[in-house]
Amino acid sequence: MLTKLKPKSEFSRNVLTLMTGTTIAQAIPIAISPILTRIYTPEDFGVLALFVAITSIFGSIANGRYELAIMLPKKNEDAINIVALGFIINLSLSLVLFLIVIVFHDNILNLFNKEISLWLYLVPISVFLMGLFNLLNYFNNRKKFYKDLAKANVYKSIGMAIVQLSLGFFKAGAFGLISGQIFSQIISNTKLFFNVKGLDLFRKIKKVKIIALGKRYIDFPLHNAPSTFADILTIQLPILLLPKLFDITIIWFFFFAKKIISIPSSLISRSVSQVLLQQLSYNNHHNKQNFPIIKQTIKKMFFIALPITMILFTFGIPLFKFVFGNEWIISGDISRYLSLIFLFQFIASTISISLVAYNKLKILAIWQYIYLFSSLIFFVIAYTVAIDFETFLKYFTIIEIFFYIIYIFMSVGIVYYSDKKLGAM
Fold this sequence. Notes:
about 425 residues
């Protein structure tokens, strides 16, 4: 009976492996969230929100986006040299960020909340660890070490939970939350690093190879890195700019609602996307069709996301009140709007990897720049007109959904017309 229930295709088995580990990994922060919201204040989460926003923006481009090229070459020797190239860029960027924090510390504080003052010095460390994780993650994905990727996610969550709970009971404040974040990155990187080390490929790293591969995949730093920076900046704009539009306490509640809603994306979307990239890359190398896979993926993602959206939109406020306490009712109200965005973002974030698999980075960049420009205009108008927060959420939701629908059509269109050229349709 159990054998019959197991997924038959390799793609489904790999997705299930990652999802199993990620499910356990996400179950841990969900389980401890009601405790964390009672031992940490909204102010503590506010500092964490700013820290995560800043590190996410720079962490996303720490390797010059060369991590995405790790999946593309046929030879592992080429792949490990791309890892080396990404590491050099990551280390360089982290050192530059550290110097910027030291020299312009007070100027940076004027842009954000002064409570993040001390934690700014930890931003370069977190950015470096994020960049390193992306490199190791993609190389492990290339080698189909899905069980180890799953284990790394579980170890990461356990480490973060232990540190945040332990320090929280000692009233460590934002230090406890941020320390847990960094400690969890160290654990996951350690696990994935030993996998790569065990392949005995480091001796094949050559300066000539690094330079040659850097040139071959130059589109990633030239086009994908700036556009990704724009994309992540757009996603983090609410955290960075909401204090300028409304009371600073709003970012605490917005960040927490966003964090809870992002759990399904971390749980499912990321796992499917990782395996999807590997499958699309393989099919491209062997001239096989990809559109049926994309179409089936969209259907599955939609039917997974729809119930989540309906539950949060209908019961968001009472759910947050019951699970996290009366103090987080505002987050429950915000979650109703974010759940509508989630339905489209969930699908788009999963299948958008097709643009990377087909190396359509310029098209992706155009979308991301327009997305950022439009969001900035919206925030400027909201600031000028001085709209209330409820009205802000309504228009914010409409704009986000509009852009994610375009994103979905772009991703599907690239695969459809590529298959058509192959005569696969």
